[in-house]
Design a protein that fits this description.
By secondary structure, the protein is an alpha/beta fold. The chain is about 55% helix and about 10% strand. It folds into two domains: about 35 residues; about 200 residues, SGNH hydrolase (Rossmann fold, 3-Layer(aba) Sandwich), CATH 3.40.50. Strand 4, helix 14 and strand 5 form a beta-alpha-beta unit.
């Protein structure tokens, strides 16, 4: 009887042992993938590579040197601002400055505050001027900040003290942020998925780009409160970014960038920027043709050259020493 009883339990032992071995093997694979991704993550995308290069350049800046002009934005800034051209244009007018450009795809004002805070901490020299380039709804969009974007590139767990409540407004958002900050596999999961789809479907990047260009505009909640004022969250974000830059001794500026599709500059936004003392430059009417754009939003090489020349001519009239 005892032998029979013992025999009836034997099949479970190898199964349990096999499950433990498989689980351990899976954890080892995930650990190796995490370590490998940390080593090669700069190769994942232009955004990741630019972030690493920018971090190194900012850290290497000596405390003494030309004043620092920092451009901040998303893919519009990436496509539209040539740091070397702007620096050369300003130098030709007697303004010798260091110019750096920070950009991250799919970001708006919700993420730019955290981006600036991280960059200001890393820089060997505090920016003298911070130029935020935007178009359409980027400054008035009141959609929640993307916790993965915040945690992956520009914020850390140390920033939770001000992020919670300000941009992370739920337990799930805080958890997602923490995972993106600690785990590269989680932070880059969407990029890894795109790479896999590209490997399986070679035409995927071109298809995704066409879908992006044809997609309708954002459907975020209304930016105005119905009485001609900005929504409270949009106002809070503008105030917070302006206050943070000024606390560092930097002058905040905003540029309404040109797009092929065009857009309206809300009067409520102009009024709020004026009340905050933030300089607004309007480049929407810059004379550009179809060849100056790669799509409905992003400047081509010729458009970037025209916009850079405009910046070099316009900025000296508004930069405060």
């Amino acid at each position: 009887m005892s032998g029979a009883a013992g025999g009836s339990g034997d099949p479970g032992l190898p199964t349990a042992r096999l499950l433990r071995v498989l689980l351990l093997a899976l954890l080892c694979l995930l650990l190796l993938a995490e370590l490998g991704l940390r080593h090669y993550e700069a190769r994942l995308s232009a955004d990741v590579a630019q972030r690493a290069e920018l971090r190194a350049r900012l850290a290497a800046l000596p405390e003494q040197g030309p004043p620092l002009l920092l451009f901040l934005g998303n893919s519009l800034t990436r496509a539209g601002v040539d740091a070397a051209q702007v620096a050369a244009g300003l130098a030709a007018q007697g303004r010798v400055v260091d110019v750096e450009v920070a950009h991250r795809n799919d970001t708006t004002l919700a993420e730019w505050r955290a981006m600036y805070a991280a960059l200001a901490q890393e820089a060997g020299r505090t920016p003298r001027w911070v130029v935020v380039g935007y178009a359409d709804r980027h400054l008035v969009d009141v959609s929640p900040a993307d916790p993965t974007l915040l945690g992956a590139d520009y914020a850390s767990l140390a920033d939770l003290r001000w992020l919670v409540g300000a941009e992370l407004r739920s337990v799930s958002a805080v958890v997602e942020f923490a995972l993106a900050d600690r785990l590269r596999l989680f932070a880059h999961r969407y990029r890894l998925r795109r790479r896999l789809l590209h490997a399986l479907i070679p035409a995927f990047p071109a298809l995704a780009e066409r879908l992006y260009v044809r997609a309708p505009g954002p459907t975020a909640p209304a930016d105005a409160a119905g009485d001609g004022r900005l929504a409270p969250l949009a106002r809070e974000r503008l105030q917070a970014l302006a206050a943070r830059t000024r606390a560092d001794g930097a002058q905040p500026l905003v540029v309404a960038m040109p797009t092929r599709a065009g857009y309206v500059l809300p009067r409520a936004l102009v009024t709020e920027l004026d009340a905050l003392g933030v300089t607004l430059l309007d480049a929407r009417a810059l004379p550009l043709g179809a060849a100056d754009f790669n799509d409905a939003h992003h400047l081509s090489a010729s458009g970037r050259a025209s916009y850079g020349a405009w910046l070099a001519a316009r900025l000296p009239t508004v930069l405060q020493d």
